[in-house]
Amino acid sequence: MQKARNILGDLERAVIEHLWAAPHTSSGVTVREVHDAVGVDRGLAYTTLMTVLDRMTKKGLVSRQRDGRAWRYTAASSREALTSETMHHTLGELAGDERRGALLHFLGSSSPEEVDELRSALADLEARQQPADVSGGRSGRPA
Amino acid sequence: MQKARNILGDLERAVIEHLWAAPHTSSGVTVREVHDAVGVDRGLAYTTLMTVLDRMTKKGLVSRQRDGRAWRYTAASSREALTSETMHHTLGELAGDERRGALLHFLGSSSPEEVDELRSALADLEARQQPADVSGGRSGRPA
DNA sequence: GCCTTCTACGACGCATCGTAGTATTGCGGG
DNA sequence: CCCGCAATACTACGATGCGTCGTAGAAGGC
User: Fold this and answer.
1) By the CB < 8 Å criterion, does B107 face chain A?
2) Measuring CA to CA, which of A31, B65, B84, B120 is 20 to 30 A from A12?
3) What is the CATH number of domain A10-75?
């Protein structure tokens, strides 16, 4: 009985989208604000957003903290982190040798821009680690 | 109305797993064979696998061809291709600048092995295109 | 002709998600 | 001190997807 392959629903997506858009400086967004932002134009009831936020909390997608008798919600992980995590999850289902093939496929069906982005991200990462050891790989420090 | 974020269910996963394991030389696998392979141990009825295969066909996950009065099923895309496609799908939901961040995240949370794999895959791809232009990037051919 | 093997089609149970109503609780104004 | 507003907590309902089967025919084999 392992479930939970659906990362995000449709409304959930819109909601977290809004949370991501909120300034990190704030201590979070109230249900009312989320409703005003993504609920009203869709003609949704306040309680709908409440339920959704509540369920997302239980799933660990968002976190919240008290503010008076209201909750203030924030996204649990950044958009980039969630995307990365999802991609890892997808890739993680493959055995090592298949991963290479999948990555090759991935690159092959990427646009030149994406490849560039990846290349530069790789360079960034490399620079951040051991600027010396570029020869064989197996760069030490994990995590 | 964009749906279809669930790529694979649970049984579906097992089924396509079996199809992937089948020799490509064969012209496909019958329901009977799939049932024997992944259905019997789970105590599933023959018809269950029939339905699942049928639905997967309608979703384009597998393809089939007649063989007498039976169908022979084959996976529509390779495991690697499907994985790659899913990853692209995930990444594709981001805007350009966020993609970079996501990729950085992705690399940052990858094991050294994965980074190596990616690096070598990138090198492969590069070699396959313009063996000359390695200097600046912006590899011409826009797909 | 009867038994087997397949396909087609419909059905049911359960989980998830979008959606919302009702009950409850706490704070501030009169 | 009590009322009502606002926000939360609790519960519910319909749609859809998926796993699971059953039944009804069609096509052959003996």
Assistant:
1) yes
2) B84
3) 1.10.10.10
Quote the CA–CA distance of B65 and B43 in Å, as a whole number: 27
Q: Which residues of B touch A111 (CB under 8 A)?
A: 142-143
- Which candidate from B100, B101, B124 shows the least CB-CB separation from A104? B124
Write down the ipTM of this complex. 0.77
pLDDT in tens, A38-95: 998 888 999 999 999 998 998 889 998 888 778 899 999 988 998 898 888 888 878 7
With an 8 Å Cβ cutoff, are B90 and A90 in contact?
yes
- The type of residue at A64 is R
Phi, then psi, of A53 in degrees rounded to 5: -60, -40
**Coil/strand/helix, residue A55:** helix
Positions of chain B with pLDDT under 50 = 1-5, 135-143
- Domain positions in chain A are 10-75, 79-128
What's the CA gap between A116 and A113, in Å, rounded?
A: 5
- CB atoms near residue B60 (< 10 Å): 9
Tell if the CB–CB gap between A98 and B106 is shorter than 8 Å: no
Cβ atoms A64, A74 nearer than 8 A: yes
